[in-house]
Design brief:
alpha/beta, Rossmann fold, globular, 6-stranded parallel sheet, single chain, about 200 residues, 7 helices
């Protein structure tokens, strides 16, 4: 049994540093679809924020992969705080994946965690922990069957510092023994001088 836990960047807010530009969403969705098709997981566990989460949930729906959607708040509140507050028509897409997740065990389920005593930051971190917990629980239910836990990290490849929940997810998953897979949200810029070196190499050929 293969269970995928996933977390990553939301779409960039207007004027924010470029971590997940909106115009990269179609490319990221194709990469996620390719990865999930290659892994052929029995389940995907993630949240449902705009960006990495919703793109993965859409890819899972197309591939008929059951999902567990983990939320730190009630679905309506989460929609306001983590879905429709960024550029793009994410509200409609959120509604569609949430509808699928409530269609029964064969399609998936929604897990709204108990809110912790702290504020929103604590709630989001608790939801991140719950994603990994739920993935491990699903894998543990495969009695007499070998299981593999895969953590998919969807980001630009670098932590933004203290409070970065994507980096927290990544480190926590590695500590729990998950295999890491990375999907980049930005195309890597060539290293300085790379273009001239490639041109020189072509001339030598």
């Amino acid at each position: 049994m293969i269970v995928v836990a996933l977390a990553g960047r939301r779409i960039d807010a207007e004027g924010a540093p470029p971590r997940f530009p909106l115009d990269q969403a179609p490319h990221v969705k194709r990469r996620l679809t390719t990865l999930l098709r290659a892994l052929q997981p029995d389940a995907l566990v993630c949240s449902a924020a705009c960006g990495a989460d919703l793109l993965a949930l859409e890819a899972a729906a197309a591939l008929k992969i059951p999902v567990t959607v983990v939320l730190p708040f009630a679905p309506e509140q989460f929609r306001e705080t983590s879905v429709i507050d960024r550029p793009g028509n994410w509200g409609r897409r959120y509604d569609a994946v949430m509808k699928r997740a409530t269609n029964g065990a064969t399609a998936g389920r929604i897990h709204v965690i108990e809110p912790p005593a702290g504020g929103d930051d604590d709630a989001y971190q608790a939801a991140t922990d719950a994603i990994l917990d739920d993935a491990q629980k699903l894998a543990g239910e495969a009695a007499g069957e070998e299981s593999e836990l895969v953590a998919v990290v969807v980001w630009e490849g670098a932590s933004r510092g203290e409070g970065d929940l994507t980096e927290y997810f990544r480190q926590s998953a590695l500590e729990r023994g998950f295999t890491e897979k990375v999907v980049l949200t930005r195309r890597r810029e060539p290293a300085p001088g790379a273009a001239s070196r490639q041109s020189h190499a072509r001339r030598k050929k």
